[in-house]
Amino acid sequence: MTGIPRVLSIAGTDPTGGAGIQADLKSIAANGGYGMAVVTALVAQNTHGVRSVHVPPLDFLAEQLDAVSDDVEIDAVKIGMLADAGVIGVVEAWLERVQPPIVVLDPVMVATSGDRLLDANAEAALRQLLSRATLVTPNIPELAILADEPRALTWADALAQAERLSERHGVAVVAKGGHLDGDAVPDAVVDASESDDDRIREVPGTRIVSTNTHGTGCSLSSALATLLPRIGDTAEALAQAKCWLAESIRYGADLHVGSGNGPVSHFAGLWARGGLEARPTAADLAATWWNDIADIRRDIDDSAFVRGLAAGDLDDGAFRWYLAQDAIYLRAYARVLAEASRLAPTAEEQAFWATSAAGSIEGELALHEGWLGTETVFDAEPSRVTTAYLDHLAASAFRGDYGVLIAALLPCFWLYHDAGLRLRDHAHDSHPYRSWLETYADPAFTISNERAIGFVANAAARASDADRSAMFTAFRASAAHERAFFDAPLTGDRDARL
């Protein structure tokens, strides 16, 4: 199959969350499936043991099962605690009618104390149910009951018993060595319908010294039910499920749940490798970053330079000084855009940054030359503010990190477009700076700005938390340099030359 396995657990409850359907749902989710649950019994238990069991009416059990299968396509079923022969009969009738493609049966028959949980009629009904299953996962005491034989004392005896059970009922059996003595804890898929070479396929294991083993049978069987639709091969699914369960047992003590046999930590590996923070969407990141520079945007709007541009009464000398510094910036900016093109992971992004680099020289720089003349543009010296901004961009490029570099480049698109949209409303035929006001609200620049935002936001959404943080740091630093760049023409920096 493709996609996410839809797995139904049919089992009893555990209010402490370590076994039963609570453990099943965690196991299914941890192994990449969508879990559903039908309750066969309400169990009052904790990490020390079971106190009482309440079995809901059988017609309600049937209604639960039908409610799920009438609406949802089921890829696999895991069956756990079936309290009595009546419950088993309802589940068997539903299996016969619905015919789920995979059924993993975990026969809950023996308590931790060694007491048998089912009466003789229920045990007989459960043996009959085996023929409806794809895979059955008994521990060694349960294997003996299902086989109606004495308990196996060695691994070889357990394998032989599992093979006889498989042959008798036409079901694959997972033989489990956890109840045997010794450091080795082998498991095996035993399928009497296979050829001699494949009848018994072992998965080795080493015992983990831990008291956090509550619900391991539930967890393993529901993991198998989740992995089988996707992997197909039972032994491979067992190996993967066993690796996951071992990791979950190792970290179980970190949960500090209960004073008896505690649960495993079903999501320990996912928490360690994936972190706990939700991954934001590109749209969410773009909105958040824009909001996080609201103070800088406000300062730019309130700057004397921008207000003077809007009103048309900006000192001509200040504007020409600004254009000369911007020309110096654009020549270096084009080189950094070209570096972004070199680092880009896709042809689309490579073409965009390369085109933007050409546009900085052919379009914007040409506008500056029209105002100042070629000689003035190329004779100007960089101010402290211009140099600081270009040093920041150069350092971002030198890192060789595509995400950080394009984040540093983005404010030159976004802030100019934002300011340009408002300044355009002030343009009129007699406005002295009309051509400049209209440049950054041009429809072509609007499209470029939107594409730049999209490339940066998507890169940030794909990045790790640390890399995303570095990207935002570079983005905000560039935004702050833009603010200083707008302030410089009317401050003391105008007289500073390097």
Fold and architecture overview:
- With 498 residues, this protein is an alpha/beta fold.
- It is 57% helix and 10% strand.
- The chain has 20 helices and 9 strands.
- It has helices at 20-30, 58-69, 85-98, 120-129, 140-147, 155-169, 216-231, 234-250, 268-274, 282-292, 294-302, 304-311, 316-343, 347-372, 374-379, 384-398, 402-424, 434-439, 443-462, 465-487, and strands at residues 6-12, 34-46, 49-54, 76-79, 103-105, 135-136, 172-176, 187-190, 200-203.
- The radius of gyration is 34 Å and the shape is elongated.
Brief description of this entry?
Helix 10 packs across helix 19 and helix 11 runs parallel beside helix 20.
How would you summarize the topology of this molecule?
Blueprint: E1 6-12, H1 20-30, E2 34-46, E3 49-54, H2 58-69, E4 76-79, H3 85-98, E5 103-105, H4 120-129, E6 135-136, H5 140-147, H6 155-169, E7 172-176, E8 187-190, E9 200-203, H7 216-231, H8 234-250, H9 268-274, H10 282-292, H11 294-302, H12 304-311, H13 316-343, H14 347-372, H15 374-379, H16 384-398, H17 402-424, H18 434-439, H19 443-462, H20 465-487
Parallel strand pairs: 1-2, 1-4, 4-5, 5-6, 6-7
Antiparallel strand pairs: 2-3, 7-8, 8-9
Helix pairs in contact: 1-7, 2-3, 3-4, 5-6, 7-8, 10-19, 11-20, 13-14, 13-16, 13-17, 16-17, 16-20, 17-19, 17-20
